[in-house]
Amino acid sequence: MKTLMKKTQINCEVEKLFDFHMDSNNIKKITPQNIKVELLNDDGSSYVGKIVKIKTTKFFIPTYWEVRIEKLQKPNILIDIALKSPFKYWRHQHIFNKKENGCELVDIIDYELPFGVLGRLIEPLLTRDIKHMFEYRHSKTKEILESK
């Protein structure tokens, strides 16, 4: 199992950062442009146990995700876990901490690739891709929230 963590200081109220993440339509705004995201069952609500179905397309290859909201603790924690995804295991913790000058966004991603030895061979490429995606997400989140 691998764990990646990304932290970013954002000049906004922690409640604003939490609410931004509660709006699942914002995933489209913070996803790199080479990945298309479609929410397949969004009703605008967020609650523990909710299952969000997502289709991502990269290089014309569609991937389907089903993600369950495992924990919500306003305004500090959102944890989701993939029930179906390209990964053997995927758990994503979004942590929102109040700081003196705004707040801190922390993403912790625990994941495991499928396919045993083959999965371990491509792991460095996927790890780099995941890091890049979260760097982009943090940068865009900061840009959006600090411009409002």
State the share of residues found in helices, binned by percent.
25-40%
Q: Would you identify the CATH H-level superfamily?
A: START domain
End-to-end C-alpha gap? 38 Å
What is the H/E order?
EHHEEEEEEH
Which class in CATH terms?
A: Alpha Beta
* Overall 3D form: globular
Extended strand count: 7
Sketch the major β-sheet.
7 strands, antiparallel
Mind telling me which CATH architecture this is? 2-Layer Sandwich
Number of domains: 1
Rg calc:
15 Å
Poorly predicted segments: none
Binned strand content: 35-45%
- The computed structural class is alpha+beta
Strand order of the largest sheet: 1-7-6-5-4-3-2
Mean pLDDT: 94
What does this protein structure show overall?
By secondary structure, this protein is of the alpha+beta class. It has one domain: START domain (Alpha-D-Glucose-1,6-Bisphosphate, Chain A, domain 4, 2-Layer Sandwich), CATH 3.30.530.20. About 30% of the residues lie in helices and about 45% in strands. The chain has three helices and seven strands. The protein has helices at about 15-20, 25-30, 115-145, and strands spanning about 1-10, 35-40, 50-60, 60-75, 75-85, 90-100, 100-110. It has a seven-stranded antiparallel sheet with strand order 1-7-6-5-4-3-2, covered by helices on one side. Strand 6 (about 90-100) and strand 7 form a beta hairpin. The longest helix is centred in the C-terminal third of the chain and has 32 residues, at about 115-145. The chain is globular and about 45 Å long. The termini are far apart. The mean pLDDT is about 95.
